[in-house]
Amino acid sequence: MIVNFKVFFNNSYSLTETIGLERTSKFKFEGGDAAWEEEKLGSYATSEIRFVEIQEKLCSEVLDGKEQCYNLLEEYDESLEHWWFKKQNEEPDLYKYLCINTFKVCCPNMHFGKNCTPCPGYPDNICHKNGKCKGSGTRKGDGTCHCDKGYGGDYCSKCADSYYVSYQDDNKFLCSECHHSCDGPCTKAGPAGTSTFNFISNIKIDLYSFFFRL
């Protein structure tokens, strides 16, 4: 059930669009005396009519796994109905109510694992803003940082091999690739940035100075 429920939400473009909350937000009772119906039958916003209209459109925009979407809709119909009539006023975020709190198969964004542990650097410096937290938003993953190209370290806090710090301030740093002629680490752009280049250059200078003195 855990995997299926996660797929159910992943197949949605966005939760509010898929279940039709946004699509029907400005609708009202049609035909007859709408004002009388609002007064006698209650607001359309929380009505059974609107709930049925949303259900009918729930899986219509799902491109992959449409049949599974309908099967899951039937399986979780009771939970959706309970939220609609009993919980939506106090817990308006359906995704949080069902996926995170009720079925416990999701975590808030930038949290991971069984206990929804915050990702490294949460909330403003996840993986030093140079990578992604493994398992973010799920009950899986171990929260390790998967670094972007050019960055390394456990928390993506340094440049990877063959990259150098090309910019740095109090909030971020940027890593750029070493020149293709560099053999080993480098400290700046161009072939002069490699330690090998600097070593050879120093030898040439020393030899020039030696022969110049002869």
Automatic annotation (TrEMBL):
Domain EGF-like residues, every copy: 115-157
Record InterPro entries: DUF3456, EGF, LE_dom
GO process terms (BP): animal organ development; system development
Keywords linked to the UniProt accession: Disulfide bond, EGF-like domain
Annotated S-S bridges: 147-156
Top-rank lineage group of the source organism: Eukaryota
Protein name, UniProt field: EGF-like domain-containing protein
